[in-house]
Amino acid sequence: MKPPKKIEDAWFVAQYCAGHTKAMAVLVKRWHKKFCMQAYRYSNDADVAKDIAQDAWITILKHIHTLEDPSKFGVWGVSIVTKKSIDWYRKRKRIQEKKQEIVQEENQRVTDEKDHLEKQLVKEKLKKAITSLPDEQQKVIRLFYIESYRLHEISEILQPSKGTVKSRLYYAREKIKTILKD
């Protein structure tokens, strides 16, 4: 035996489908609060829950003529609200993920920019340090680090002994370290 509420719901659905629009007002009065509570379980926001319930009512009005068993109006309506709530939740989640992604990208961009600026600053300091070296040491540094020559090749190019080239390279490095520390 069906509970009286289901029978009443079925009767109001049948009345509405027959053209009595006031029957829908009774269904709304009976179910709207329950629909809002169902939507609130997903949204935790009363205003959003009301919006979801309102959207569900629009769907119910469009499709009530397709309801095969009018006594299942409550279950059918709650399932529509639940689907709309899940859709809202998923959409909100995608938006939050997108916002988080944008924030992460911006943070990465700022970090990359900082790193780039720091590297530029170090390069400028290094250039300044190299240009402050005596000419012989500058030549050895450039040939060794920039042009990738070996010590014996630098000795052949500049004509001092390999030991002198090695000594100039050592003192140049030490002076650059001192300048960069300051």
Summary keywords:
rod-shaped, 182 residues, mainly alpha, 7 helices
Strand-helix topology:
Blueprint: H1 4-17, H2 22-43, H3 46-63, H4 73-131, H5 135-146, H6 151-158, H7 162-181
Helix pairs in contact: 1-2, 2-3, 2-4, 3-4, 4-7, 5-7, 6-7
Integer average pLDDT? 93
Share of helical residues: over 70%
**H and E order:** HHHHHHH
The largest sheet, given as strand count, sense and whether it forms a barrel, is: none
Q: Can you walk me through this structure?
A:
The chain contains 7 helices and no strands. It starts with a helix and ends with a helix. 84% of the residues lie in helices and 0% in strands. It is rod-shaped, with a radius of gyration of 39 Å.
Quick rundown:
The protein is mostly helical and 182 residues long. The chain has helices at residues 4-17, 22-43, 46-63, 73-131, 135-146, 151-158, 162-181.
